Amino acid sequence: MNQRLDSTTALDQTSNEQYIVANNIRIAYDEFGDTTHPPLVLIMGLGTQMIAWADSFCQNIADHGFRVIRFDNRDVGLSDKIKVEYDVSIPKLLLRQRLRLSLKAPYTLHDMAKDTIGVLDALDIKAAHIVGASMGGMISQLVAANFPERCLSLTSIMSTTGNPALPAADWRVSKQLISRPQSLNEEAIVAHGIKTWRIIGSPDFPASDEELRLKILRSFRRCSYPKGFRHQMAAIIKTGDRRELLNKISAPTLVIHGKQDVLVPMQGGVDTANNIKGARLKLIEGMGHDFPAQLQPRIARMICKHIEERASS
After folding, report:
1. Which pLDDT tens digit goes with each residue over 102-114?
2. Sequence-distant (≥ 6) Cβ neighbours of residue 273 within 8 angstroms
3. pTM for the full predicted model
C-alpha cells in the first residue's frame, strides 16, 4: 500500500508557498492575482516543480484578470512523496509494455488528475480553467475528460495522447533522460541539467548557460527527489493511450506545441487536437520542449485570448 512521505528534502522555499490537503496528499501551492477573479490552474510536467511556471508568466496571466494557481504535483517539489516498497525500473516497465505484459506502478495519471480536483476542492473552487504542460497536459486532459463540470477550458501544451503509433522521442533525448549525473554535488547536477536542456530546449530561443544554471540550482536547492521522476514516468506508461477519453472532452480546448520539440514530437500535439472536438491547434516555430523567456508573453496571450474568445462566443 502506498504511504505518504513528508517533503524533508526541501532546501528552501519562498514565503508565498502554502499547503493544502488534496486527495489525501499534502500539496504545496501558491497563487497570483485577485482571489475573486476566474481561477486558472497550472499543472507542470514530468519531474518538474511548480516554479517552472515562471513568476512573470503567472503574473502576466493574473494581470489579464485571472486568479492563477500553481502547485507541486505529488512526488515533486514540496508536496508529499509517495513511498512504495519496491524500486521502479523504467526500462523494465517499457519492456513489459512492449511485450504487452501487466504493468505495476505506484499510481496513474488518473490519480494525479484527482489531485488537481482535490486542489480545487480544498480551495473551494467549483470550476477552473485548466492549463497543463507535457505530463501536466496529460493530467489536464484527464481532468477535462473525467470531470467536465470542473473544467471551464483546457489548454494542453507540448503534450500528447499516449497513441503508441506516434513518433517517439529523439534517441538523444531518451539516452540523456535515463542517464544520471556523475555525482549528486551541485556542479554535476548543473552540468547534467544544462546538457539536458540544450538537447530538448528551443533551438530558436536558447537560454544562456548562466540562465540555465540559476534555474537548475533553484530547483535542486528547493527539493531533490529523483525517485519522483521514475514514479511519474511509470504513471505515464501505466495510463497508456488516452484517445478514447479525449474524444469525450467538451471543454473549449487550445493545443500549443513547438515545431522543434524532440522530447514530445509535434505529431503529439496534432494528435491531441485531432482527438478533441473543436480543439484549436497553435504550432510555434523554433520552440522545443521548454518555456523560453522570449515566448512566455506570447504563450500567455494565447491562453488568455483562447479563454476570452470562447467565453464571448
Report:
1. 999 999 999 999 9
2. 253, 255, 279, 280, 281
3. 0.93
